[in-house]
Amino acid sequence: MDSLDLQVLTEARRWFAEGRRVWLVTVLETWGSAPRPPGALLALRDDGQVVGSVSGGCVEDDLIDRVRHGERVATPALVNYGVSKEEAARFGLPCGGNLRLLQEPLSSVAWIDELLARTARHELVARRLDLSSGSVTLETASRGEAFSFDGHTLRALFGPRWRLVMIGAGQLTRVLAQMALALDFEVICCDPREEYHLGWDVPGCRFSTAMPDDLVVELALDPHSAVVALTHDPKLDDLALLEALKSPAFYVGALGSRDNTARRKERLALFDLSPGEIDRLHGPVGLHLGARTPAEIAVSILAELIAVRHGVDLAQKKTGSAVPPLRAAELPQA
């Protein structure tokens, strides 16, 4: 679940507790380049206040106007936009674009309480809504499942936030943490060295002084988790990698040259890791961008991490570019 949907559910729960009437709006069907995918949420309050998004803004305005003018559904109802060229133009939809929504009154927040508690425990949960009765049930979901709507039943998936665990608290880690937070990751930095954690100052990033292997075990990494070792100290990096490579984490990487990576794999092979587990290590970490500065290296790491998350083939990622770097005289001028 991304942070926007989390905010939607949290705010809807608060409004309901205050005695307000609240509706949830879910995207059922949208166009290819739409800003919000099927399953995205918006919460709408009886005075027109909203949190969340289902489009670029025009549709939200229309939903607000409907509520303010007394059009308040009492049971789950379908709302369609873009059924004609004129309406598509009015609501900023592309030619032929269609936006199909489901608006439902919020009659209980017990399911929201349970959903938020389960996703906080890094569970993957499906919310099932029966349109005829308005009843909501929560079910355990499996990876590979997708949002679905058959005209009678909506099944939306809510999972834990994507999580990035960084070993080491150097300058690169600070930049990487800030960028990862901007990309909506839950970010954790681990460094037991006092001289590093005393000056840590990245808001929104959890800091741990535990030994890296202990933290990795404690976190019980799941397929929504990634681990990047950044200290250049085998006593710290290798401890984390030994546990992370045995976990279901979708990405495990380590900073270092090709030579360092080869030596690291030799060290890891001395422990109880299988060849397949060792081969999961991404090293040198990051896509080949010719990166030199901490910010550039952080971009390369996150680019690779996101590509792996989306199943992109990275077979050629370390081969380098056939295009030579621009000389200073060839750079665009301001």
Structure characterization notes:
This protein is α/β, with parallel strands linked by helices. It folds into 2 domains: 3-158, no CATH class; 163-309, 3-Layer(aba) Sandwich (Rossmann fold), CATH 3.40.50.720. It has helices spanning 3-17, 58-68, 85-90, 110-120, 171-182, 194-197, 212-219, 234-244, 258-268, 275-279, 294-309; strands spanning 22-29, 41-45, 50-52, 77-81, 99-105, 125-130, 136-140, 148-149, 153-158, 163-167, 186-190, 206-208, 225-229, 251-254, 281-282. It has a 6-stranded parallel beta sheet, sandwiched between helices. It has a 5-stranded antiparallel beta sheet with strand order 3-2-1-5-4, with helices on both faces. A 4-stranded antiparallel beta sheet has the order 7-6-9-8, with helices on one face. Helix 7 packs parallel to helix 8. Mean pLDDT is 88; it is low at 318-334.
Question: Secondary structure elements and their pairing?
Answer:
Layout: H1 3-17, E1 22-29, E2 41-45, E3 50-52, H2 58-68, E4 77-81, H3 85-90, E5 99-105, H4 110-120, E6 125-130, E7 136-140, E8 148-149, E9 153-158, E10 163-167, H5 171-182, E11 186-190, H6 194-197, E12 206-208, H7 212-219, E13 225-229, H8 234-244, E14 251-254, H9 258-268, H10 275-279, E15 281-282, H11 294-309
Parallel strand pairs: 10-11, 10-13, 11-12, 13-14, 14-15
Antiparallel strand pairs: 1-2, 1-5, 2-3, 4-5, 6-7, 6-9, 8-9
Key traits:
single chain, 334 residues, alpha/beta, Rossmann fold, 2 domains, six-stranded parallel sheet, five-stranded antiparallel sheet, 15 strands, 33% helix, disordered C terminus
